[in-house]
Amino acid sequence: MTNKGTTLAVLTGDIVNSTKLNVAQFDTLLHRLKEIQSWISQANAGNTHSIRRGDEFQTVIYDPANALRYVLLYRVGIKALGKAFDCRISFAIARNEGTRELVDESMGEAFIRSGRGLKTLKSEFVYFDSDRSELVAQFSLLLKYLDWQLSSLTSRQCEVLLPMLQHEDSLSVSELADTLNIAVATASKSLKSSGWPLIQALREQFYTQVAETLDV
């Protein structure tokens, strides 16, 4: 089946230092990747995914305004597993000639831009591109700052952020504390020290701007 003329986002990523993971770590990682992809599909049933060789993954996003939230779910969700875990992610929003039933057989502008972006990542871990130049101009530098902030997070901070992202910010601090079985003061302090208010504000700004630009 082919879907023509759709503006979509494509997220392409790989695991940092995946060859250094032992069997147990690799199994934990694979389980988390499948969890994250399940959460993304729950948000929009049309979103599709692939995992290749266990350390490369891709998601086709039909609700592109939510693309940054999905990037955060991957990066934070993987870093939450521990110091040994991290990933690089390139995502692109573009008009697409067509997608096929299997993600690995799909092609188009968003796939090309996302794939090329991943190859450019060396010391950085997040890359964004689009055929809408205004989106690139507005968010490229902001996402570099976000990348820097995410890279500084501990696995424990990521554990605290993950439920907030999973539930689309609908959790209160007290509900988050109950979910993690920690004190409310601890949850509040962890959110503040992780930069959550600014991360949340950027995600909301990205959603709004993309939705307005694409008129969705």
Can you tell me about this structure?
It comes from Marisediminitalea aggregata. This is SatD family (SatD). By secondary structure, the protein is α+β, with helices and mostly antiparallel strands. It has a single domain (6-214), classed as Nucleotide cyclase, GGDEF domain (Alpha-Beta Plaits). The chain is 53% helix and 17% strand. The chain has eight helices and five strands. It has helices at residues 23-43, 67-79, 109-120, 133-152, 155-166, 173-180, 184-193, 196-214, and strands spanning 6-15, 48-52, 56-61, 87-96, 126-130. The chain has a five-stranded mixed sheet with strand order 2-3-1-4-5. Strand 4, helix 3 (109-120) and strand 5 form a beta-alpha-beta unit. The model has no long low-confidence stretch (mean pLDDT 91).
Give the number of DSSP strands: 5
Beta-strand content: 15-25%
CATH C-level label: Alpha Beta
Count of DSSP helices? 8
N-to-C order of helices and strands: EHEEHEHEHHHHH
The 3D shape can be described as globular
Mean of all residue-level pLDDT scores? 91
Indicate the structural class. Answer: alpha+beta
Rg, Cα atoms, Å: 17 Å
Strand numbers in spatial order across the main sheet:
2-3-1-4-5
Oligomeric nature of the chains: single chain
Briefly note the CATH topology name: Alpha-Beta Plaits
Helical amount: 40-55%
CATH superfamily: Nucleotide cyclase, GGDEF domain
Sheet of most strands = 5 strands, mixed
State the end-to-end CA separation: 24 Å
Which architecture per CATH? 2-Layer Sandwich
Instruction: List segments where confidence is low: pLDDT < 50 over at least 5 consecutive residues.
Output: none
Number of domains: 1
